[in-house]
């Protein structure tokens, strides 16, 4: 076990002291739950490499294969095909729809059962994709994977935030994003290895998802349910016992009292008004807006355009097929290592500083890549080897900044800012917003690259400027704040968002 922790009382904030240890059991449960991210990352990373494989294109998209190998074809438009983009994006459209059902499953049956359901959908989807004999079967498999993503991405971040002590909540939650990056890297390595296995290489790539899916299924059978979920569903004794287990001490009175009070308050509010309807209240808008905007901005950094289609992008830059896949592996490795930076820093320097620094670094990289492609990549030529390598380096610079900021924090911040009565419902909007705009980017990127050419990177650069302004003015710092004290210590004290709580405060005074 690691060292103990305590949170000192604070008369101004009404904080109480929570005692306990950072137990190995918490980390083990966290690692298993974060396997949802491993599966999500594998799905993100595998599609781009598979769509760059000739055997896959011949099987399902022969017109794209023919266009890819025409000597005079426009470099920017080789892969512009709506059906090909649908192969990638259909997963996220399914996840968008599934996330709302996952919210209700998460509330009624708990976070653990929701992750188990996700693993079943992952296994079914993997089997359909790897064994696909036609495009319809392939898309149905991707839809099953999408339902798994919707369920897993709903439950895992909530699970991680609810079992973590406040002062390491950021680091533990970022295990989810770390697993996403590891999944992307593993997928890119698998694609590199299977690209020379003809004609079955693409089947091995898609079938590789069975590995993380099986780990999640078996792991979900042994992990705990969160104390908050147990108390929320009327199992108070089990909830207290589980809190004692994950904190490594029986001195959990203060923390258990706060969890119980939050659950009782949420239950009373839910009797008066259902969670999704309560999200329409004025005081629910600050965390809801932040949750949605963080997910939209995460996608409009342009990261998934690069992660989905990195091999395609590098082929556009003139790399051969194997070289483009190897370049994608390099960016995937940078992605993993940079996420470790976030685990170390997020609970030390805070969320806002990481996000703002990343905006500057991503903007420089995007503009530089756009400039190189504008000057050196024309419709029917490729840049010199030196400029192509420079592009890979710049994309690594860009990916590294995203990986320690908008990647993990896009999931962390929404998972920790909702009060219990709207937590699962509110987070479902975060998940669905992420999936909606992931779908938009996945479905549109190749067409946008064909139409906008190099200017697509300037478009994402403009988005990054807007994101930085939003963080600077409207995003509160949540570092070190217990999850059930966010309303009083964050939203009511923020210069802008506090106005949304005045009516609720006046109502409490009048009732007294």
From TrEMBL:
Major facilitator superfamily (MFS) profile domain sequence ranges: 29-479
Source organism superkingdom: Eukaryota
UniProt membrane topology term: Multi-pass membrane protein
Gene3D superfamilies for this protein: MFS general substrate transporter like domains
Signal peptide extent: none
UniProt KW keywords: Membrane, Sugar transport, Symport, Transmembrane, Transmembrane helix, Transport
Transmembrane segments: 22-42, 91-110, 117-133, 202-223, 288-312, 324-347, 354-375, 387-413, 425-446, 452-475
Molecular-function GO terms, alphabetical: monosaccharide transmembrane transporter activity; symporter activity
Record InterPro entries: MFS_dom, MFS_STP/MST-like_plant, MFS_sugar_transport-like, MFS_trans_sf, STP/PLT_plant, Sugar/inositol_transpt, Sugar_transporter_CS
UniProt cross-references to Pfam families, sorted A to Z: Sugar_tr (PF00083)
Cellular component per GO, a single term: membrane
Subcellular location: Membrane
Main location: membrane
Family label: Belongs to the major facilitator superfamily. Sugar transporter (TC 2.A.1.1) family.
NCBIfam families noted in UniProt: SP
Protein name (Swiss-Prot/TrEMBL): Major facilitator superfamily (MFS) profile domain-containing protein
Organism: Brachypodium distachyon (Purple false brome)
């Amino acid at each position: 076990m690691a060292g103990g922790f305590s949170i000192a009382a604070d008369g101004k904030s009404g904080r109480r002291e929570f005692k306990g240890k950072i137990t190995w059991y918490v980390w083990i449960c966290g690692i298993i739950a974060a396997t949802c991210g491993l599966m999500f990352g594998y799905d993100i990373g595998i599609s781009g490499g598979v769509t760059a494989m000739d055997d896959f294109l011949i099987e399902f998209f022969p017109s794209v294969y023919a266009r890819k190998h025409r000597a005079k074809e426009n470099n920017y438009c080789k892969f512009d095909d709506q059906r090909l983009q649908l192969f990638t994006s259909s997963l996220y459209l399914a996840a968008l729809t599934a996330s709302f059902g996952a919210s209700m499953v998460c509330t009624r049956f708990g976070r653990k059962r929701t992750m188990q359901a996700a693993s079943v959908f992952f296994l079914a989807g993997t089997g359909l994709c790897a064994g696909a004999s036609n495009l319809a079967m392939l898309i149905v498999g991707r839809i099953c994977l999408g339902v798994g993503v919707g369920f897993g991405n709903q439950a895992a971040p909530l699970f991680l935030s609810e079992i973590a002590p406040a002062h390491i909540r950021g680091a533990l939650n970022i295990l989810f994003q770390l697993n996403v990056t590891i999944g992307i890297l593993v997928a890119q390595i698998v694609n590199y290895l299977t690209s020379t296995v003809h004609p079955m290489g693409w089947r091995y790539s898609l079938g590789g998802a069975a590995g993380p899916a099986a780990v999640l299924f078996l792991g979900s059978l042994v992990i705990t349910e969160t104390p908050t979920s147990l108390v929320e569903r009327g199992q108070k004794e089990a909830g207290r016992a589980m809190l004692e287990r994950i904190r490594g001490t029986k001195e959990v009175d203060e923390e258990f009292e706060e969890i119980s009070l939050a659950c009782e308050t949420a239950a009373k509010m839910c009797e008066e008004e259902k969670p999704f309807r309560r999200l329409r209240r004025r005081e629910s808008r600050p965390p809801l807006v932040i949750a949605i905007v963080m997910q939209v901005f995460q996608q409009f950094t342009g990261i998934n355009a690069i992660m989905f289609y990195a091999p395609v992008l590098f082929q556009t830059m003139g790399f051969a097929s194997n070289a483009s896949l190897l370049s994608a592996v390099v960016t995937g490795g940078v992605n993993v290592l940079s996420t470790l930076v976030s685990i170390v820093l997020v609970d030390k320097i805070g969320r806002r500083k990481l996000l703002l620094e990343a905006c500057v670094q991503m903007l420089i990289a995007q503009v530089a890549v756009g400039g190189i492609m504008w000057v050196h990549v024309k419709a029917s030529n490729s840049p010199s080897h030196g400029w192509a390598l420079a592009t890979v380096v710049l994309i690594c610079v860009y990916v590294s900044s995203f990986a320690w900021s908008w990647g993990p924090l896009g999931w962390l911040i929404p998972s920790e800012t909702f009060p219990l009565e709207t937590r699962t419902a509110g987070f479902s909007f975060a998940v669905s917003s992420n999936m909606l705009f992931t779908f938009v980017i996945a479905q549109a990127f190749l067409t946008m690259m064909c139409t906008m050419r190099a200017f697509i990177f300037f478009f994402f650069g403009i988005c990054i400027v807007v994101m930085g302004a939003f963080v600077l003015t409207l995003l509160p710092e949540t570092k070190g704040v217990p999850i059930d004290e966010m309303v009083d210590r964050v939203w009511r004290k923020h210069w802008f968002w506090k106005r949304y709580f005045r009516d609720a405060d006046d109502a409490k005074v009048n009732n007294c």
